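Hi R.,

Here's the chain you asked about this morning:
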Amino acid sequence: MRKALVVGLNNYPNCGLDWCDNDAIAMKELLESNGDGSPDFDVMPIIDSCTKEQLRTAIEQLFMGNEDIALLYFSGHGADTDGGYLCTTDFSGSDYGVRMTDVLAWANNSKCKNKVIILDCCFAAKMGESILLNNNSVLGEGVTVIAASQPWQTSAENGAIQHGVFTELLIQGLKGGAADIGGNITPASLYSFVDQSLGAWQQRPVFKTNISQFLPLRTIQAKVEKTILRKLSVYFQNPTDEFKLDPSYEYTNALDIEHQVIEPYANPMHVSIFKELQLFESVGLVEPVGTEHMYFAAMENKSCKLTALGLHYWRLSKDKRF
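And here is the predicted structure, written out as tokens:
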């Protein structure tokens, strides 16, 4: 119930591009499967060249049906005339290709639950502006646009990496850079990853959405398994609680290890709990109180508490949201 149209066009007459095919191939490979190899999107690729009619038909078909997610990725030339165009390789004169206003209209009218449009082309954010030409002030319900650059900016390619600058960041984000603790990569987290990776003097990406809840575009191995993450609300009954520690939680504080040990000695049950608390600490959910390291928090009879991020996941755990 998830489909994607991935387009990478190089073969433009007299103004060819170098790496858009690489962009599309890499995006296709990532979108087809999750990090564990399970199937994700059913991807239709269009590589190197495409006529206006071919692209128009493919995009219309993408947004037909009622799938959970319909995703359009386009890497190629963009034009800023008449609300913006996704340029096809048969463009001529003032006929550049497929109008962004048409693409947005198809997405807005689609019965698919989530419509995600990702554009790596010059003037990409025209997609967000062009809807105004249709006398409509908001994106349709369930529509998200991630654009490589502002409406007045070009989008760069990088020969050293043989990808568009924007798409290379998308690739790194989909590989895991944009994943949350549960391993989910959403349009919002993907945009945030790209946005933070580009400097103030570089092309600036644009994010526009009208959606109440994001579905993940891809999942990878969770940083903390859900069965362990759910224990946040077990170890911390209340969000302001501190979990009291003592030397029995530290596994090295045992008589069979040659160093000074402190009573109470390592307790297997406490050690198991402490390992999970240390895992929470490693991903920023828990922090020791009164010392810099969890080891010393245990050995010095101190405690640990939830961080601000930990409080967020504590609420999700308490509400059984995962």
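One quick note: The two ends are 21 Å apart (CA to CA).

Cheers,
M.
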